[in-house]
Specification:
Layout (H helix, E strand, L loop, with lengths): L10 E6 L3 E10 L2 E11 L5 E2 L2 E2 L2 H15 L5 E6 L4 E9 L4 H10 L1 H4 L7 E10 L6 E10 H12 L4 E7 H16 L2 H4 L4 E6 L3 E8 L2 E9 L2 H8 L7 H9 L8 H25 L7 E5 L6 H10 L4 E3 L23 H9 L7
Parallel strand pairs: 1-6, 6-10, 11-14, 14-15
Antiparallel strand pairs: 1-2, 2-3, 4-5, 7-9, 8-9, 11-12, 12-13
Helix pairs in contact: 1-4, 5-11
GO biological process, one term: cell division
Protein name: SHS2 domain-containing protein
InterPro entries: ATPase_NBD, FtsA/MreB, PilM, SHS2_FtsA
Length: about 350
């Protein structure tokens, strides 16, 4: 993998989540992009546990279905590992250093920058420009993850014919997607100089992400997402999980135990509050311009309503498909837009340079 920019070729982002593979294919169109492909393939339960793939063969079968759904246009892929598996550190370096010199300096100082043996990790870096308070210095973002976490995903993708150009980190992809669509959909959230709080509520986890000035300022990953609610509502696995989710998305909760729902929402808000508390303990700006909900949790009215009631800030459920005109054959996925935020960010990553 080397410096990567697809130019006018399509950009394909594939998000391998715990419950599904989600893919978006973009094509540059003037100063924006058109969505030319979307795919979603459900995964067997427990195929990915604690962000580790337990069966590469089963994942490859799901990816094969994803490729079939997309067609044959793009094989170059940007995918990601979880932020819980990656370590990012911002360091100051001389502004005179070019990419080769930065890479050499990182390797020389690897022991201080990366808490793993360099032979066991893949690392990447990006210059964030001149340091605002240190003349003659630039800020360099160094990101590292264990080689195994990257290689298992690459192996599964390449087994079905995809060519992995970049392995990104999920919170960086989310940052990229938010920076692309929020100024258009919710400009009031970017009018303020305060950070933006993003709550990524998936089936398996709750990730608290704070974004500010084009950077990920804070991230906290906590296991325990929607699966906690689904398992409590369906302890004997008598009901189809897809049907339960459809009822929750439609806010048809009359047949569900109010106690179970309230217990889940209470625990969820405790997780969110704890993440906010930890961020604020070291932050200079403790307030937020707003709260953005993404992923499966953002599709459930009961979660959106709970966060809106508990939080002191405006709350929005981010659907990137409100910014793009979907081809007619993908209209059925419109309501699922919050689940595709990371995939969008990965697809956008295709059009920016990086060093891997």
């Amino acid at each position: 993998m080397g410096l990567f920019g697809l130019g006018k070729k399509p950009g394909l982002g594939i998000d391998i989540g715990t419950d599904a593979v989600k893919a978006i294919e973009l094509l540059p169109a003037g100063d924006t992009y058109d969505i030319i492909g979307i795919a979603e393939t459900q995964l067997p339960r427990n195929l990915i546990t604690d962000d580790e793939i337990t069966d590469i063969e089963k994942l490859s079968r799901a990816l094969k279905q994803t490729r079939k759904s997309l067609g044959k246009r793009s094989l170059d892929v940007v995918s990601s590992v979880s932020g819980s598996q990656a370590i990012s550190k911002q360091v100051a370096m001389s502004i005179d250093l070019d990419d080769d010199a930065i890479a050499e300096k990182i390797e020389t100082e690897a022991e201080a920058l990366i808490p793993y043996p360099l032979a066991e990790v893949r690392y990447d870096f990006e210059s964030l420009g001149e340091h605002p308070t240190m003349p003659g210095q630039q800020r360099v973002l160094v990101t590292a993850t264990r080689t195994l976490s990257v290689d298992t995903r690459v192996q599964a993708l390449e087994a079905v014919g995809f060519k992995v150009r970049i392995m990104d980190v999920d919170n960086q992809a989310i940052l990229r997607a938010c920076d692309h669509v929020i100024p258009h959909l919710h400009p009031e959230l970017y009018d303020d100089h305060l950070p933006l709080l993003v709550l990524d509520i998936s089936h398996a986890a709750v990730q608290t992400i704070v974004l500010s000035a084009g950077e990920v300022m804070f991230t906290r990953y906590q296991s325990g997402g929607l699966n906690n609610l689904l398992n409590a509502l369906n302890p004997d696995s008598e009901h189809d999980q897809g049907e339960l989710l459809a009822k929750l998305r439609a806010n048809e909760i009359e047949d569900f135990s109010p106690l179970v729902i309230q217990d889940f929402l209470g625990n969820l808000w405790s997780q969110i509050s704890r993440g906010i508390q930890i961020y604020r303990s070291n932050a200079t700006k403790k307030d937020f311009s707003g709260i953005v909900l993404i992923n499966s949790g953002a599709m459930l009215p009961l979660i959106v309503e709970m966060v809106s009631e508990q939080a002191d800030y405006s709350v929005v459920s981010l659907n990137p498909f409100n910014h793009f005109t979907l081809p007619d054959k993908f209209e059925h996925l419109y309501a699922h837009g919050p689940r595709f935020v990371e995939a969008l960010g990965l697809a956008l990553r295709s059009f920016t340079p990086w060093h891997t």
